[in-house]
């Protein structure tokens, strides 16, 4: 039997955000796939929404403080969805051997440090905690001074592949507040839609493992290595529709 040919299609959606009409577009295929293969589409939608939020912020006369060479926020615990865990695992596997070894060694070092600090079990299950417990644990993690394994010379070494959470984290406040994890001082830009939260919801639907659909970055490679993650397959358009439904659901923080 001849295999069915995969067709490239373009998904587009018009949304009214603030006083603007935003047209979201991304290329997908008509194939049945896992949500991991749709990461480029989720990233493209997020970039468009974030670009619009930046435009609105600048219209208010505010300036975004984030720029290349400022990795002030990259010591904070970064949530990554399990879909992104698998994506980052593939990104690392494509790196040259020496770079892979360097990155894997940093991940392993960070796990040792959190284990020695007696935080590893709580951090592994952080997604199940209440908000106040999450914040308290994040503060303890931050005090360990662990930079994201992908941070290089204070810039993101995987910028095109960085998680949605990193894409949305933009501030107008002084970078020192990010560097000190001073929640009172940090002024986030107002995101019109919460794409990282939408991906966390979609991630929980996308695989066979129990849980909330996300972990902290430091666990990403370790989790991918276990091979326990099995992703469900659905037509691409259904994943995209689910993601955009979650993204436009105002009840998701
Ligand atoms: S992935 Fe990149 S942007 Fe995100 S925390 Fe790591 S270095 Fe920073």
Radius of gyration, CA atoms, in whole angstroms: 19 Å
Count structural domains.
1
Structural class: alpha+beta
**Main β-sheet description:** 2 strands, antiparallel
The amount of beta strand, in percent, is 5-15%
Strand order of the largest sheet: 1-2
Helix fraction by DSSP (H/I, runs of at least 4): 40-55%
Cofactors and ligands present?
A: iron/sulfur cluster
The rough form would be described as globular
Q: Count helical runs.
A: 10
How far apart the termini lie comes to 48 Å
The helix/strand order is EEEHEHHHHEEHHHEHEH
Mean pLDDT: 89
Low-confidence stretches: none
How many E-type strands? 8
Describe this structure in words.
With 253 residues, this protein is α+β, with helices and mostly antiparallel strands. It has one domain. It is 44% helix and 13% strand. The chain has helices at residues 39-59, 82-93, 97-116, 120-124, 131-143, 164-168, 175-179, 195-205, 220-226, 236-247; strands at 8-17, 20-29, 32-33, 79-81, 151-152, 155-156, 214-216, 234-235. Strands 1-2 form a two-stranded antiparallel sheet. It has a two-stranded antiparallel sheet with strand order 3-8. The chain has a two-stranded antiparallel ribbon with strand order 4-7. A hairpin with a 2-residue loop joins strand 5 and strand 6 (155-156). The N and C termini lie far apart (48 Å). The structure holds iron/sulfur cluster.
